[in-house]
Amino acid sequence: MDLDRAKQELEEFIPHVRNIADGSIRKMAGRDLTRFKQFKKQGIAVKFGRFSQKENNQIRKNIEEFLSITGIDSAEKLLFTSRYPEDKQTINRLKAEHLFCEKLSEGIPRPWRLIYYRARKMFDPNNYKGRYSKEEKEKLKKYHALHGNDWKKISELMSRSNLSVAMKYSEVKSSVNYGPWSKEETQKLMHAVEEVIKKRIEKEDANSLSSSEKSHREISIDYETLYQKLPWTEIEAKVGTRYWRQCKQKWTTILTNKMTKGQQLYRGTKGLQAKINLIKRLYEMKAEDDNDVNWEELSNTIGDVPRAYVRAKFYKLKVSCVPLWQNKTF
């Protein structure tokens, strides 16, 4: 399949596909397109975002079955083959012979690459080692000075996962402020978000509008563009004094205040009613997992607010009002 046709067919399932690198699109055309079409026939949409417990269980099942078929003795060997150079050739041969790509993604309506990354996160023994000590943080800074953003190399030296060292470095690379946001920091955050959104719109326009249309176009942005899939590490770098998760949380707060015109939705009698409405709607949805909930729809239940705001409020309700909530089903 040629590249243009691959983009056209994938766009039905992944609207932002034209922003993805050509090499990745070619891989998706081979690994994902047939699966996506099969899911469509079953009335199942392609999913993004957080993995549900059901999907995690399916990944475990797929991995266990593949290990059973091939005789590979651990998920770590299967997913981190480079750590076992003496077995690498045999493992890669078995993965090719028994169609590892197809087996791993079985029953999961997501791009293969995301499933693979999720499996690596779930089965990496270096991913669950608790808090970083002061000595580890200093080592991390030293290794980054030597190896830059080669997280694979740094993860091997630290005996931590790639994701873990990358995220931790984001926190420790500079003096991060943990206190209240200053007016200057808030302005930097707003300017940073404005810059990345403008850049995204300009890139989309370059692919779809003529030069005369661009010069006369009024820019309008839907809510989703303002808070979904923003490049938070890039925004973090522009702000300078906060790490990415702080930036994301602060931006959600700013958006909520703008969208509600500063009204306190969760205080007083109105706040109590909003919580009751939220619980009622969640109950009516009969969702089995947090990721099965349409948070966008729920945001209209308590006011015109970002879905992240509603999700955070439900989490706070759950933690503060439900004893032993960690041990209960959704």
Automatic annotation (TrEMBL):
GO cellular component: nucleolus
UniProt-listed Pfam families: Myb_DNA-bind_6
InterPro entries per UniProt: Homeodomain-like_sf (IPR009057), Myb_dom (IPR017930), SANT/Myb (IPR001005), TTF1-like (IPR053078)
UniProt name for this protein: TTF1 factor
Organism (species): Pluvianellus socialis
Gene: Ttf1
Highest taxon listed in the record's lineage: Eukaryota
Record-level GO BP terms: termination of RNA polymerase I transcription
Domain HTH myb-type: 124-177
A GO term for molecular function: chromatin binding
